[in-house]
User: What shape does this take?
Amino acid sequence: MSTVLTLLLLWIVVSAGLLTAMHGRLLRALWREPVLTRPVVIVESDDWGPGPAADAGILRAIAAILDAIRDRSGRPAVMTLGIVLGVPDGSAILAANGKIYVRRSLAEAEFAPIVAAIRDGCVKGVFALQRHGLEHFWPAALLARLAGDAALREWLADPSARSEALPAALQSRWVDSARLPSTPLAPPVIDAAVSEEAALFERIFGELPQVVVPNTFVWNDALERAWAAHGVRCVVTPGCRYEGRDAAGALGPPTRRTLNGERGVGGLRYVVRNDYFEPIRGHRAERVWQAIAARTAQGRPTLLETHRESFIAPPEPARTALIELERALRGAVARHPDLCFMRTAELVGHFDDAASPLRARALPIRLCAWLCRLQAEPRCARLLKATGLAWPLRSAGWLLGTLTRNGAMSPRLARLH
Assistant: This one.
């Protein structure tokens, strides 16, 4: 029996050593990532901006759903709105044969109903503004591709055209995709664009959001410096950073991995969107419930990425999107009575505050979350499976989860706090 125990111990030590040797930096980063004591749910929706007056009605319908769903503190569900401030004036651009760029912005009177709906939602606490670009593309790149692109000229000629219909490579605002592979923008050009964007945002909404969502998640250090200089505190990421488009127009390989609470240039904090809720692509409430359960076990917030296109779809899909949004959030509250709703900027405040009651400090709770994160990390999963270490880690996580569920620890574990 002693030989079996010795071999078992040797197997665990060797496997753990191999894991540490190959992924030690990642293991430390996962440990440093803040652990939350309660489920946090934020719906993050991008691409809202100029559009037909009907968009205002859709925004008000979303706001009504959010306002009717409350956490145990009485706070309503929150949807962040990634705001795009402008769209091209297609007729003017085509009349000039693509030689100049002309913009129509949310500051114009025809978009006043949309702005009013957004403001009213912010007053109710159900909407939170985030920066998502002056346009959802780089204007010079758009003009450069006009001459040889009939489809692009047709898009510009349609007054009802949405930026969602642009080629994916062009939707990356912060690189020059006139030719592929894309090339970086010069820092002075970036600084000027961020400054212009910030001034217009403040003029329209009377405030300057501290949270930014990079278009298609393509950005670099120069852009982070510019954002930090213009009041940004937080960058929403998909868990990594991309810096360009390849020759086929696809995203290039990630240049950096990001975790919640990590810092970028200028002290910016990263927050990670970690699941999707896109009803137009068939996502339903059940997917949201599964995501919340998984992220809560990992001690992470659940940030659900969605887009305007799900809610501005034809009547039946748009109605389905609203139904699923309500069902997802009501079901989340029913399944997690201690769930809390908040804005992304508030979440960053908890990351900044080590003494926040939303952050776990007890060793068993943090260890349980760390084990769950480790098993969910693709970079480690294959090694855990190959060595067989996944099984004892899963067992240890289950035991700790049982002991710490709902914050209830045994007296012995509590002394480790």
Q: What stands out?
A: The mean pLDDT is 91. Residues 2-32 form the longest helix (31 residues). Residues 362-406 form one domain.
